[in-house]
Structures are given as structure tokens and as C-alpha cells.
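$ fold --in a.seq
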Amino acid sequence: MTNTFTIAVTGQSLIKRDIRGVDKPGFQGVREVLGRADLRFTNFESTILGAQGGWPLKGRFFGCSQPVVLDALQDLGFQALSLSNNHAFDLGPAGILSTLEEVDRRGFLHAGIGRNHTLAGRAAKGAFAGRKVALVAMDGGPGPDFMYAADSVDGRPERPGVNRLKLSKVVDVDAEAYEHLRIIRDKIGYTMVDLGNDNQPDDRPEVDPEAEISIARAIFRRSDRFGRHVKIDAASISRNTATIAAAAEEGYLVIAYLHHHHWASDWYQVPDWVGAVAKTCIDAGAAMFVSHGAPVLQPVEIYRSRPIFYSLGNFIFHVRSEKSPWMAREVWESVIGLCSFGEDGGLAGLSFHPVVVGGSESASSDILEQRLVPELADEADAQRILSRFKDHSAKLGMRIDIENGVGMLRL
């Protein structure tokens, strides 16, 4: 296919070890697939312990990495990184600054964190193989307010942090439960002053006074049934889509990225709000939408001839075996997506190459530390991974054919 520009997208890279010395045939196969792309993109699911130091802000799921892991990603061919995720602030503002220093030193195209709110939300812009590419990266949490970047205002200094897509959890309750909650709120005396104490000044939840009650950080909505939802902050999504639109208008092929942990109970199910965000980004001008969070491979969808990867699961996943909740086989399986775009920016081709973190032979092992690198799946695993991916994507109207261990999406 001539005059096309190919982007490789992968699962998230939670990398804590230097993997450049690994020499396995399946890993070399991954290198070969990545090598077919003009631009290779992943989410760096960590924070760098570097010259700025830092302090652990998490307990069990704390994570940081030495700068050498960025050399390992670069050795694999990655040129573009999203940095907006739940581990980006694990060392606080110091970790944000160290990460920025180290990715800049290596020349990565990167987006999603910054010294302040304005810089964290910027579009990173570059040129690869003669094509202008921009990246806008967001994190939807849930996370503490202080992990998100802030500009200086009224004598308050700026705060390094993550670019936020502000989301609120909403719990639907029936009329009877809603009335009980209203009585509880009034008897406790919960007021807007309390809301101010619970949140930063700009992070108070937007509440419909006729149908919603906010107590602490929870929003309860009167409904005819019980359920859970996510509310998208209008100003937050507008700010990010305006950045996407501006880059697209300048002729950049824009990758819109979102990291979040607002998963459905069934990890394979895509919450409606995620689809709404993805399509809003594409409507604004994004050429593709990529997301991580749920630690499994979720379906792909084509919207307005542009791909939406709802979750690409894991690509590198360095976690400990001790007390690990990540033993399910599906957590270690994903695909590398090769997305080809024509000169007009339209999608020209899309293929999926199944991988297993640690290789197919690792599936029976409980020693997660041995699963260092992604490897191309063997024939049986490739068929199983792609068949599951095909079935889930078919529910969104997508047709994926499996040919010689590779998934091909028919446009």
C-alpha cells in the first residue's frame, strides 16, 4: 500500500525493568511487527524516579521506574508516549518533573502531564515520515484532586500534574431511597461549605438541585431504578476537544488518548460514557481514539472512518506475584494494532497482531516476574485471542476476518 502512514498502537506499558537483553523469538516477532509502522505509540504506565526525587503517595499499588526503562521503550522503536494515567503522580509533583525531564531528554513525543494545567493539556506536535502528528492525552481517574495539574492563580502557585478529563460517579436510586438520602443530608447539616471542604475550589461536583444530592464526593440521582453512571464535566471535555480541533485544523493527524479506571463490572463491556467521549473527540477532529484502563483487550469500533480502541489491555506488565489480583489469563493477552492512513487522513487499513505477555508458554505459571516482554502468540493462542476480539467487536458492527494468525478489519 503506497502513500500511507502507519501507526502502531499497543497495550499499556507498565515497565519497571530493562528488557533490552531479552532475546526470545516471540519478542523479536513483536519488534518486527512494530517495525512496519512509521510511528509507534504506547502509554507509559509509570512515573520516573529521577533527579527531582519524590515521595510515594500510594500504598499497595504504588509504582515508579528508573529512567533506563525509557531507553528500553526507545529500543523497541517507540517514539510517542501518553503519560496521563493513574501512576503518573505516584511520586507527586517531583515525579512529574523527573518524567518530563527524562522523556524530553530522549526526544519522545509526549502528552498528558505538565508543570501546570495549561502545559499538561497541550497537544504534543511532531513530524514522522513526512506526516504531522499530534497527541492529546487525558486521565479520567478516579484519582485525588491534587494529582491533576493546576495553573497559578491569585497568589496560589502552579502545580505539576496530570491533564484531567473531569468525571463524577453518579449513583441512581429510586424515589424512596432518594428521599431517605435527602433526610440524612438535611439532618447531618451537609451544606455547600462541606462540599468546599471535600473538594478543591474548582472541583466541586455539578449537581442538579431538583434531582441530585451530593454527600461527600458521591452524587445520588433520583431515578426509577438503581444503577451506576459517570457524568462527564462539560467544561473539561470542551477544553480537551478544543485542543484536538485546533491541532486538526493545523493539518495534524491527531491521536486522542484517555486513561481511566471507571470500568464496568464485566471488564469486556464498554461503558456508554466512554463511547460518547471517543466519538466527541473524533467529531472534534481526532484521527483515532486510544484508551487503556480496564486490563483486558476490549473491542474496536470504526466511527466516521476512524478507529476507536476502547482498551488495548497490557503490552508490558511488570507486577509482583505476591498477592496479585492479575492472575487471569486475559490480563496478559492483547494485540498490536497497525493503523494505516491515506494522504487525506482517512483510514486505509487496520490489522491486529495478537501478543501474550511472557509468551504462550507462561500461561500456566504463577510467577509473574518471569513475564517480562510481549511475544507474538502461538497459533492456538492467536486464534483464541482474535476470536474473542472478533466476537466482541462484532457487537459494535465490526467485521474482523482472521487470516494466518492476524486479524484484518474490513472497512
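$ fold --in b.seq
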Amino acid sequence: MPKADRYHKTFPVTWEQLHRDAKALAWRLLERGSFTKIVAVTRGGLIPAGIIARELNIRHIDTACIMLYNYREEGDAETVLKNADPSFNTPDTLIIDDLVDTGHTAQILRAALPKAHFAVLYAKPEGLGLVDTYVTELSQDTWVLFPWDSDIQYARPIIDLQKKEEA
């Protein structure tokens, strides 16, 4: 788990839960208006964007490639590898990401596409004000463990983890 001093809880997400949450987000978006375009934020937003594109029958899809988390190094540094096409700066565009955490990535995308509707599966307090729609709010000290970042293996009971932190 990266940056152990910053994250004290883990929220594991299975493939099934991710799919359910993406469909729940699609239902919320359907109530918010008619969307014809999606900007998927790579990499975490690709799978949710694909599910939402299917559910809302959206075929016009672009990507914004922004690297923020680097598990090999301490500290976060944004790197914009590819920004979204400026023609996607319209109210009928969805920006889809898996998570808004500190809001750094969201700030970059909001600056590039201020008219678009920003939607995420999971939101934390520091970034919550930057998104328009989300499914689940989590505490800031929670690390979301996505299925593409994990293996199935034995998990220690919470009480054992607590004892380890106290030692």
C-alpha cells in the first residue's frame, strides 16, 4: 500500500463491485442529462468508461492520459501524457475516472474541459468539490485497492493489523 503514513484504511474493490458501481453511476448520469461523448481518464477510468459507454450507448470516446500516483516513489507529480481533444469541451461530454482523491488530476481536467460533466465511482473529501457525480464517498485516509492492482491472497484480520500498528 503506497504512502503508508497517508493511508490507514483499505477499501478493496472486486471486479463485480466495480461493474455494479459503474452501472449505478450510469443510472445517475442518465438522470442528469443526455451525454454523447466520453473522455476516459487513463488508466483507472478506462474500464468504468467502457461500461458507462455501453449502458448509455455512447460511441464517441477519447482519453486523457494523466499519471499522478507513482507507487515506486514518494510524493505525487502530475504528468500529462495526453490531454483530451478540445472539441470534447461541451456539456454533453462525460469525463469518467475511477476515483477523485486529492483532486490534482481533476483540476487538470477541469482546466482543459470546463464544460464537461465529471463523474467518478469513488470520491474522497479533498477532491469531492471537483466532480459532478459519484457513487461512493470514502474517507481521505482510505486506499482504494482496485482489482487490476491486486491478487487474491490471504488477508490478515483487522485486529492483527491494528496490533501491528500499535507495536
